[in-house]
């Protein structure tokens, strides 16, 4: 019974309260309906109470059920304008409709307390001109004593603020800032403790512009923002603080926190996001930043932490930005290739020097503890830094150890094939970055290559058991401890290249390589690939990739200049064998220049200079040579009888000294082309013999059957030969031999055109052996003299006939 009685009493009390609320609400609604103008005036007066300007509305209509049990009205045609509106023409607020929820009890006793405001179909334009004046000056502050004495309930304390379909613009002409939002919905729920106010703000908006500097473009362009923020205002700090909450930007969750200093117009924003694609992050930034970042790519999602800070001074224009990223087991695309299995911690700031300016000039990007594979070569960088983004300079210490075979199929070109060997590099690099490519590099450090097997395809050079130390000293490069084996040839190499780093990118044809080589034994035919034409193309293929870099290197090797100092214990080329070879050789463009070469050969010495000009079909050569006391038999044998078969090493004995000035053509295989030689040969034969020389044998058969002209011994012979292709012009020459003496001159042709005149006295030189030299000269042409001529016969050989036209 007791429970039933208590329930009845409770129900009666609730019924009374409900009836009381309804009666109160009806009373408020009735009051508003009967006193629209007065209520509107009270609302506007309450809103205008603290304004340096005016808020107006064209009309007011009650909307009784919108905020039950409160009473609400709709203000139509609302305008909020500051006192200087006539000058700048920007309405702070222009709303088609504002719903205002009123406290019923305060309304009945004659006061208007606003519980809730909903702004619908409106535009808010917060404007600051170039002098710093803002239309927000409409909101004036109370004097300090008034603030202290006033009751908090008398202040404008709105519990709920909603924005629906509102365009919000913050335009700061002085600081070149522009923030423009299409707000679909914002719901704010406010409380007002003594310290200020606190609230929950639920928002859904589209960003048209979020530009901290309109000259550089907008962040978050055309991105959506959606989420709930916890905010509170501190009177003591005069600042609004947003606790870190999840806010979806472009559909991806970001953790955002902020502090906004209202007095100084300063702010600090913290951002944290996990598992987001690098490209999506770049597209959130302003074009001046995103255009640079999109030169790079990161395939898998990354973690990012960042801060945006503006002290409100406007001293530098840009806010302070600090960003950190974490990359793990990722693939990073850079203009010159890809970094695979990449791990690093990255950071960006636009104030690298604390206390310095904020901007590109003081910006830096840093990569810490970077490990990756670059075209299959593992690299490690403790810290890599890019400073001054207006004129970027990159610095870093790069280390790596890897087998050279890792580079196969990775360079983008087949110019180099690595079968074995290892590389160990430690390089400190500093370079300008022009359009995201390294230029003017300054490099210090070393690359050590050991036990390498390398095929250089353009020249078909196969180097085995190769090793070298490549040393970089800023712009200069040197090679030490170089050892190469090409076939059976071994070379020990050292070289220096001054200003290599600068010229490599700008003028590779101006690179001068000073190369020193020593070999105990060299097989010259293994170097015949150098006789092929060099590639003189100066520009590599377009595109930023490892293929371009490899092509550039190949191009540099082809167009650079080279000075070679060569010493060889033993040099072998086919039949040619020489000892103690010393050579000074230069490579320039298409030319191989033999500046000075000396060698011991065939019991004597050879010294020569000249050049070989490389051409597509064959090579043009020019030789100036001094031959001293070499075995003529061995000499002709070594040079393959100089491309002719008339006088060969089998026909010659004795020692030759000669001055040779000839030019001709040589094939890419190293063979002298027949009938291509032109020039002059001045020679001396000593203790010589002409053995089985066909023209001489035929003369013997024609006139000296009783003499041995198949082995004609010559104590001394001086002569001059002028070579014109397939014809050899024999200057007048006296031959004194064991079998006969004769004078000879004319043209000896390797093909048609032989016309050699010979004056042969019949006296036997054997009878003149006891005469003095003078007597021999006087008696030489006494007696019967045969005047003969050697000419072509009908079968392509040589025939002897009388010379009717002799002198």
From TrEMBL:
Give the UniProt entry's GO cellular component terms. Answer: plasma membrane
AsmA domain boundaries: 3-265
Q: Name one Pfam family in it.
A: AsmA
Superkingdom of this protein's organism: Bacteria
An example of a Gene Ontology BP annotation on this entry?
A: regulation of protein targeting to membrane
Where does the sequence pass through the membrane?
none
Q: Per its UniProt record, what PANTHER family does this chain match?
A: DUF748 DOMAIN-CONTAINING PROTEIN
Q: What is this protein called?
A: AsmA family protein
The lineage is: Bacteria, Pseudomonadati, Bacteroidota, Sphingobacteriia, Sphingobacteriales
């Amino acid at each position: 019974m007791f429970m039933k009685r208590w329930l009845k009493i409770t129900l009666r009390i609730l019924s009374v309260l409900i009836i009381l609320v309804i009666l109160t609400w009806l009373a408020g609604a009735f009051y508003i309906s009967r006193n629209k103008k007065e209520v509107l005036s009270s609302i506007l007066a309450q809103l205008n109470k603290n304004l340096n300007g005016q808020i107006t509305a064209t009309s007011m209509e009650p909307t009784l059920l919108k905020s039950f049990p409160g009473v609400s009205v709709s203000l139509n045609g609302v305008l909020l304008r500051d006192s200087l509106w006539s000058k700048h023409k920007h309405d702070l607020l222009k709303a088609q409709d504002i719903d205002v929820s009123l406290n019923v009890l305060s309304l009945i006793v004659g006061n208007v307390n606003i519980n809730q405001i909903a702004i619908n179909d409106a535009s808010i334009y917060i404007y600051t001109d170039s002098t710093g004046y803002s239309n927000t000056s409409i909101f004036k502050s109370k004097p300090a004593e008034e603030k202290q004495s006033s009751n908090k309930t008398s202040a404008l304390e709105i519990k709920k603020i909603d924005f629906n379909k509102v365009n919000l613009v913050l335009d700061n002409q002085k600081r070149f800032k522009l923030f423009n939002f299409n707000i679909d919905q914002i719901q704010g729920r406010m409380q007002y403790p003594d310290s200020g106010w606190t609230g929950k703000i639920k928002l859904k908006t589209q960003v048209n512009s979020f530009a901290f500097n309109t000259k550089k473009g907008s962040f978050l362009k055309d991105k959506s923002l959606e989420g709930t923020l916890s905010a509170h205002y501190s009177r003591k700090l005069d600042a609004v603080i947003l606790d870190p909450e999840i806010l979806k930007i472009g559909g991806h969750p970001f953790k955002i926190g902020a502090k906004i200093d209202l007095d100084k117009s300063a702010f600090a924003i913290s951002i944290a996001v996990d598992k987001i694609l690098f490209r999506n992050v770049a597209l959130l930034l302003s074009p001046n930043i995103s255009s640079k970042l999109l030169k790079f790519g990161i395939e898998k999602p990354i973690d990012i932490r960042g801060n945006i800070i503006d002290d409100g001074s406007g001293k530098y224009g840009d806010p302070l930005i600090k960003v950190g990223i974490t990359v793990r087991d990722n693939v990073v695309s850079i203009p010159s290739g890809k970094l695979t299995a990449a791990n690093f911690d990255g950071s960006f700031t636009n104030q690298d020097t604390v206390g310095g300016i904020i901007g590109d000039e003081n910006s830096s990007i840093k990569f810490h503890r970077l490990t990756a594979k670059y075209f299959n070569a593992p690299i490690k960088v403790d810290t890599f830094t890019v400073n001054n983004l207006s004129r970027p300079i990159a610095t870093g210490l790069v280390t790596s150890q890897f087998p050279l075979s890792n580079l196969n199929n990775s360079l983008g070109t087949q110019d180099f094939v690595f079968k074995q060997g290892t590389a160990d590099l430690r390089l400190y690099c500093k370079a300008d970055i022009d359009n995201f490519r390294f230029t003017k590099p300054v490099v210090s450090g070393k690359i050590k290559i050991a036990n390498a097997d390398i095929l250089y395809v353009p020249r078909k050079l196969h180097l085995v058991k190769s090793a070298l130390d490549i040393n970089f000293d800023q712009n200069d490069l040197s090679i030490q401890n170089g050892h190469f084996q090409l076939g059976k040839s071994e070379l020990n190499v050292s070289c220096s290249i001054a200003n290599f780093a600068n010229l490599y990118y700008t003028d590779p044809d101006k690179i001068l390589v000073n190369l020193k080589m020593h070999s105990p034994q060299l097989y010259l035919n293994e170097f015949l690939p150098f006789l092929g034409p060099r590639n003189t193309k100066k520009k590599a293929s377009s595109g930023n990739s490892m293929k371009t870099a490899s092509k550039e290197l190949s191009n540099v090797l082809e167009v650079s200049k080279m000075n070679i100092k060569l010493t060889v214990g033993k040099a072998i080329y086919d039949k040619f064998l020489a000892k103690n070879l010393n050579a000074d050789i230069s490579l320039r463009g298409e030319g191989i220049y033999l500046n000075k070469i000396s060698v011991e050969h065939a019991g004597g010495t050879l010294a020569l200079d000249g050049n070989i000009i490389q051409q597509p079909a064959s090579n043009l050569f020019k030789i100036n040579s001094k031959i001293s006391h070499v075995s003529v038999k061995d000499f002709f044998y070594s040079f393959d009888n100089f491309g002719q078969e008339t006088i060969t090493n089998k026909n010659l004995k004795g020692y030759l000294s000669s001055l040779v000035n000839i030019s001709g053509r040589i094939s890419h295989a190293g063979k002298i082309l027949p009938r291509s030689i032109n020039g002059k040969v001045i020679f001396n034969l000593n203790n010589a013999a002409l053995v089985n020389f066909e023209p001489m044998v035929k003369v013997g058969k024609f006139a000296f059957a009783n003499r041995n002209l198949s082995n004609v011994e010559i104590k001394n012979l001086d002569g001059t030969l002028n070579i014109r292709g397939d014809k050899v012009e024999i200057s007048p020459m006296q031959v004194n031999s064991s079998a006969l003496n004769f004078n000879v001159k004319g043209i000896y042709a390797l093909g048609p055109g032989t016309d050699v005149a010979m004056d042969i006295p019949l006296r036997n030189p054997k009878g003149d052996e006891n005469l003095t030299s003078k007597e021999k000269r006087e008696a030489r042409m006494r007696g019967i003299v045969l005047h003969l001529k050697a000419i072509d016969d009908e079968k392509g050989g040589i025939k002897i006939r009388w010379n009717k036209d002799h002198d």
